[in-house]
Amino acid sequence: MITISKIPDGKQWAEEIAQAISKGVRTNFYASAEEFFPLVEEGCISQAIFAGGRYCFVEKEKQIDLYFFLEKEALPVEVPAMDKPVVLEQVALARSGISPAEEEWEAIGFEKYLQRKRLFLSVKKTEEEQRGISFCEEEEAETILRMMEDAFEPYTSALPDLRTLRKDLAGHCVIAAREGKKLLGFLRFGREKKVSVLWQIVVSPEGRGNGIGEGLVRDWIALERATSVKFQLWVREDNPPAMKLYEKLGFLPDGRIAPVMLKKNHER
Asked: Which CATH class is domain 123-257?
């Protein structure tokens, strides 16, 4: 059984992570380690070093995210029981699959949770469309956040905190669908260089079946097509209505998948 310990020195930890990645280890960590410095300082990141690799655990409100760094032939080792579910997300090309394979994680207690695929739409495949676009207001932030929490699963939806959401509202990055003054749905997006990314789209129960979701996506495309080269989003493979909508609007898979696994046994 591995031993988990806090990270005493964030700078040294970042250097070790960079060295491990430079050696070609298998990993699901693609961020800059420096981005995690605040979490190291807050004591939210711990690690376990073992023969053949390292695990890093990032504690969040509802779960613990697992990042792994494994040498080429090393197998995953068992994760100790924790007081929250442990979430493992990998991103890979569908044609090559993930490594380590799901069977290797299942052997140490993880279960399949969900899988997403990434879709894209080239701006060249879109047409200019005049649309009356409206945006959510900053005073709606708490309402929007509650709607997100009701609509999405709790572990991997990457919901914004209230501060981030308010910043996005001020920047007109949350498109609204209304009936009178009532908010029936919204779409939150962001920009990664010249790629416009759909983060969340929510339609309230009373607004479903009326084309609101399609209208929000069309609003997003119309708003961003002049400054983007492509549109991008992740969609759950077990959500046929969403898949059908995006396919109707011309979105195609780009070959990337993101399987998510969960270790539920959190008895100490």
From this structure: alpha beta
